[in-house]
Amino acid sequence: MTQTMPAQEQHVQPGRESKMHPAPVYDDPHYKSAGKLQDKVALITGGDSGIGRATTIAFAKEGARIAIVYLEEDHDARETQQCAQAYGSEVLLIKGDIGDVAFAKKCVNDTFEHFGKLDILVNNAGEQHTAAEPEDISHEQLLRTFQTNFFSIVTITLEALKVMREGASIINTSSITAFKGNPDLIDYSATKGAITSFTRSLSTKIVDRQIRVNSVAPGPIWTPLIPASFSADKVAKFGKDTPMGRPGQPFELAPAYVYLASPDSSYVTGQTIHVNGGTVLNG
User: Fold this and answer.
1) How are beta strands 212-218 and 41-45 bridged, if at all?
2) What ranges does the record list as Polar residues composition bias (predicted)?
3) Is residue 269 part of a domain?
């Protein structure tokens, strides 16, 4: 069934979930938890909204304690924290810019200091900026996009590896754009390609530590990044070109992150799960 969203725009990256209409659906009322992450500690970047919020809620349902990293969206972060706490989770909020190396390292250290361990790392935060022509991509934009989307992942992951132990799981948010590109998001797509290669390479390097590294590649998902990135006209058509004819909701991705975080995926590393509304990709 084809479904479109109302035309709307936001002018601040990475966007505010509280200002979206309709609001993204992040809590699946039909989700059946089974304690798959009981007593686990997770660090989720961009956990205040969108895919990160849905993953936070699903992890909370499965028994995890969670540290959420967010840029500046206090309202969204508190709302996510309160929802996760309602499911019995303990949630630590960490505010700051993961593009800053010192802060990126601090996220890991604060999580470890507060909870005493780190079992799951979800590198999810990101930003994107459209460019009508390739020549419109400024050097500043290129550096900023890579700093947020890729360099921060490397920094946080390497810091996390200092405290992670056997059985830990690292999950990176890639994108459909890493596999098929996007003419208006060239630098963003490049960062997601880098994430995919990083996932595959790191997984082979640390497989003997019994730490798994995988990624999820979302297609068009209704998150704050969408109205914060595109014109109102494009937002109104967002996701319509998928085989399912609609954008996905954040809750529809969360089970993929639960699977990769839990022992259910004990024989899975270096892989990418595609959650994109039916687009077939070989990769």
Assistant:
1) unpaired
2) 1-11
3) yes
Decide if 115 contacts 67 (C-beta within 8 A): yes
Q: pTM for the full model? A: 0.93
The structure tokens listed for 154 are: 């490397």
- Domains identified in the chain, total number: 1
Residues annotated as catalytic (active site), given as ranges: 188
Q: What is the DSSP letter of 247?
A: P
| Helix (H/G/I), strand (E/B), else coil: 85 | helix
CATH of the domain at 219: 3.40.50.720
Neighbouring-strand partners of residue 67? 43, 92
DSSP label at residue 94? E
Residue 160's contacts (CB-CB under 8 Å, 6 or more residues apart) are 43, 108, 118, 121, 170
Instruction: For residue 203, tell me if it sits in a domain.
Output: yes
Residue 180 placed within a domain:
yes
Q: Is residue 240 part of a domain?
A: yes
pLDDT tens for each residue of 228-269:
666 677 777 777 889 999 999 999 999 999 999 999 999 999
